[in-house]
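Appendix B. Chain record.
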Amino acid sequence: MKKIPCETCPAVTPRERRRLILGDEAIAYIRARVAKAPEPPPEVVEDLRRIMTNPGGEIPKAPSPLCSDACKP
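Structure tokens predicted for this chain:
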């Protein structure tokens, strides 16, 4: 059984750790499947871009500050 370093081990990068876990054959298979996948439609790309750049949705605007008694006519 091969020994796999823990996630926080500074001796290996996350990429190297994935390679140790999956193995070269599984990585080659995944890459081949990804290469066969069709390009997503522009709408999907735009939606994903919006979600990834602002996952929480629109940021609510802060209410306008109330005027103090000194500025009221």
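Further analysis of this model is presented in Appendix C.
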